[in-house]
Amino acid sequence: MTDAFSFRLIAADGAARRGEIGTPHGAVQTPAFMPVGTQATVKGLTPEAVRGTGAEILLGNTYHLMLRPGAERIAALGGLHKFMNWPRPILTDSGGFQVMSLAALRTLDEKKGVTFRSHIDGAMIELSPERAVEIQTLLGADIVMQLDECIKLPNTTAELERAMRLSLTWAERCKRAFENAPPGRALFGIVQGGDDPTLRIQSARALTGLGFQGYAIGGLAVGEPQDVMLKVTETTVRELPADRPRYLMGVGTPGDLIEAVARGIDMFDCVLPTRNGRHGAVFTRFGQINLDNARHRDNPRPLDEQSPYETTRTYSRAYLHHLVRVNEMLGAMLLSAINLAYYQELMAGMRDAIEQGRFAEFRAQARAGWEKGDLPPL
Fold this sequence. Notes:
- Strand 16 and strand 17 form a beta hairpin.
- Helix content is 42%, strand content 19%.
- The chain is of the alpha/beta class.
- It is globular and about 60 Å long.
- It has helices at 47-52, 62-67, 71-76, 80-83, 96-101, 129-139, 157-178, 197-210, 226-237, 254-261, 272-278, 310-314, 317-325, 329-355, 359-372, and strands at 6-13, 16-23, 26-30, 32-34, 36-37, 58-60, 90-92, 106-109, 113-117, 124-127, 143-145, 186-191, 214-217, 246-248, 267-269, 281-284, 287-290.
- The longest helix has 27 residues, at 329-355.
- The chain has a nine-stranded parallel β-sheet with strand order 4-15-14-13-12-11-7-6-5.
- The chain has 15 helices and 17 strands.
């Protein structure tokens, strides 16, 4: 365990990178996938169960936690790590995604930041860049994100530029506010600019000039096709320093992850594994399997006999199908854990492949497995 944030590059294979992030709450091996713990919990799973899937770092949500139970209350109770019984690293988002997702409930002002009408009780709440940093510091996050404006795609160039420049202004204010944060924490800047490569380059260069401990690519996976997302990612990564971690926010499917790693991304988060699990869909090396489908009703096979995760190779498809069909909470819990475990297995496989100089082979094999699909039921 280290007292300060750090990043070291262990190996590279093409643009794909294998590294390690050091934080006050332990190390994170990269490429890394962060399960989303929006309200101080990964929905439906205990922290012990999440750790059992192989996760080393979680994401917490600034907007939701500032509403309930409140950042000051969490700080008084010992911080988010103690509050939710997660002793490992935590990254907190800044509330920038809610600027987009709760657009009907907020107003923007360059000086004040964002004013939200609470979706809970209608109370008006201001979230300035300084307050966003303060909240995340109170929570005790190891990695703090700048406040930014995330907007939907497609959009006009004028609107993309406006949001990008506003995010840069807020980045400067967040950096100044972060000077008062406890030692050892890290602040990441967020590159914006939508699907416009010129704006992305301008944003990345400006943020690099400000100097952050890491850099995120925001404003993607918000309606654009995968090829656009990957092209923007590739363009942006070329402008980011090689000695800092790179985080692609809100992404994605297993295919998104492997293609983004191939372009130099180190960190990811997404609700997809747990959200899909709650709706009966699981990710496996055979691709996605829908357990609500009647073809699994009499199938005694587990999802994957060769999985390193015990739950995946223990429970029969018939039983999992039954849980999904009768809407038992255990089904959502098991499938969410199975999905998170597969994501962690995929990340570990990529890390090993990069170290061994065979990432291209691993990438091809994974994609071939997904395309071939599962074996027919017994």
